[in-house]
Specification:
The complex is a heterodimer of chains A (277) and B (164). Chain A contains eleven helices and 14 strands. Chain A has 277 residues and is of the alpha+beta class. In chain A, helix 9 runs antiparallel to helix 10. The longest helix of chain A has 22 residues. Chain B is α+β, with helices and mostly antiparallel strands and 164 residues long. Classes of the chains: A alpha+beta (277), B alpha+beta (164). The structure holds flavin-adenine dinucleotide and FE2/S2 (inorganic) cluster (FES) (2 copies).
Chain lengths: 277, 164
């Protein structure tokens, strides 16, 4: 399990990191926690001549809550996300979801930025970010731009991020007081990716629902949200089950996954409703 | 590929060596430094036998490039002994409570338990099980591992109180 050789870079600011990406084109890739990338490199499914480690860029590690939003630096780890009390106060769904990702060791290194930038349909954060209507800040040679999480995912491992862009932070509008939330995930064992997972927010006449690992991108369904906002749970479930496209794999046949998706969705909606108010 | 000069602090000792950046931390520890406490179980980030403490975090050293670890402080199971070389509290409790059979998972278990108890000195049984979920054991059925960690917590807290 030895990956192919590469040259290692550890820049201390974003501009230098982008410079290295520009210089080496698709021969270069950034590495954050490495807990998706290194397994791929070991399997030789990713072969890169240059790795640009983001660990020494301090700007990417901040968590800020101000002006009605939370700003989370791309290099914030899942462990830091779980232990940040301020964030748990305003966006408790992040902690609830992060606790269901992988295992403690993976969470100490795996980053939020890596989880959302990776583009693996199995990752939990992309669906979660679509549910909470996050925006991703991307910095590249042309400057800074923002892309909504709901518009970021194109296909498995294909996202709106350009090869020379770095995802620097995630901006999440704070849900109003009294918004109910739930993250539900079905997995075969601890440390497994989801057979199905769902993020739900309900409150104050609005609702948002997204699901994970049931298509080659996360699925956020506007119709499901609208139905749920109007109190129509069955309508919301039907809209979502119509939007997902699960494929048979070692987690089960498509029909089974659809069944699990329905069960999780009802469970999450019920829990979110109980918490709303 | 050219080798890089790697500097680490392992178990309180400054060490250095030459390694290709792609070298996994576990291989550097075991093969270059001959620190063979951390084991290689799966080499695919699943079993936790390779767990070491890196800058205050439990990490699977089969999923860290030595280049990423350059400059880090590492503690392995060898570093968890008392100053006089006798078994540290967690190690002693694993022996006392039969927290191992073949012992292959044990260095990872003990190193992980060390960090868990640093962060949560008074865990419940459920918290221990959740906190140890990244470490697999094929022998014990976990019962005695959990017992050993809960007993370690008590022992460490009693020692702390006695010292105050
Ligand atoms: C045993 C195991 C179980 C796991 N279980 C789960 C799970 O249940 N749910 C889940 O969601 N994940 C799971 N993961 C994946 C884990 O959460 C990863 O850490 C995460 O997907 C990627 O984060 P990273 O920081 O490790 O990114 P890396 O592996 O370093 O990078 C992943 C990809 O994103 C790119 N990238 C990273 N950061 C940036 C950035 N700032 N800007 C642009 N591109 C970037 C990299 O170039 C790379 O292509 C698991 C991993 C393991 C090893
Ligand atoms: S050897 Fe590293 S997790 Fe199994
Ligand atoms: S004691 Fe044998 S694997 Fe745990």
């Amino acid at each position: 399990m030895i990956p192919a050789g590469f040259e290692y870079h550890r820049p201390t600011d974003i501009a230098s990191a982008i410079g290295i990406l520009q210089q080496h084109g698709d021969e270069a890739r950034v590495i954050a926690g490495g807990h998706s990338l290194i397994p791929m490199m070991k399997l030789r499914m990713a072969d890169l001549a240059h790795l640009v480690d983001l660990q020494a860029i301090d700007d990417l590690r901040d968590i800020e809550i101000a002006g009605g939003e939370a700003r989370i630096g791309a290099m914030v780890t899942q462990h830091e996300l779980i232990t940040h009390e301020g964030l748990a106060g305003v966006l408790p769904i992040l902690r609830e979801a992060a606790l269901q990702i992988a295992d403690p060791q993976v969470r100490y290194l795996g980053t939020v930025g890596g989880n959302v930038a990776n583009g693996d349909p199995g990752n939990d954060m992309p669906g979660l970010m679509q549910c909470v209507d996050a925006r991703f800040e991307l910095v590249g040679p042309e400057g800074t731009r923002e892309v909504a999480a709901r518009a970021f995912y194109e296909a498995a491992y294909f996202t709106a991020r350009g090869d020379e862009e770095i995802l620097t932070q995630i901006r999440i509008p704070l849900p109003v007081q009294g918004t109910g939330y739930a993250y539900e995930k079905q997995k075969r064992k601890i440390g497994d990716y989801a057979t199905a997972a769902t993020a739900v927010l309900i409150g104050n006449g609005t609702a948002s629902v997204a699901m994970t690992n049931l298509a080659d991108t996360p699925i956020w369904s506007e119709d499901a949200g609208t139905a749920l906002a109007g109190g129509d749970v069955e309508g919301a479930v039907a809209a979502m089950l119509g939007a997902i496209e699960p494929m048979a794999d070692n987690r089960g046949p498509a029909a089974f996954k659809k069944h699990v998706a329905g069960v999780l969705l009802r469970r999450a909606i019920e829990r979110a409703q109980q918490r709303a108010g | 590929m050219t080798k890089m000069h790697v500097k680490l602090n392992v178990n309180g000792r400054a060490v250095e060596g030459l390694a290709e950046p792609r070298t996994l931390l576990i291989h550097f520890l075991r093969e270059n430094l001959r620190i063979t406490g951390p084991h290689i179980g799966c080499e695919t980030s699943h079993c936790g036998a390779c767990t070491v403490d890196m800058d205050g975090r439990s990490v699977k050293s089969c999923t860290v490039f030595v280049a990423q670890a350059d400059g880090a402080e590492i503690t392995t199971v060898e570093g968890l002994v008392n100053e006089d070389g006798s078994l540290g509290v967690i190690q002693e409790m694993f022996r006392e409570h039969h927290g191992l059979q073949c012992g292959f998972c044990t260095p990872g278990m003990i190193t992980r338990a060390h960090r868990l108890l640093q962060e949560n000195p008074t865990p419940t049984e459920e918290e221990v099980r959740f906190g140890m979920a990244g470490n697999l054991c094929r022998c014990t059925g976990y019962q005695n591992i959990v017992k050993a960690i809960l007993a370690s917590a008590e022992m460490l807290n009693a020692q702390k109180e006695a010292a105050e």
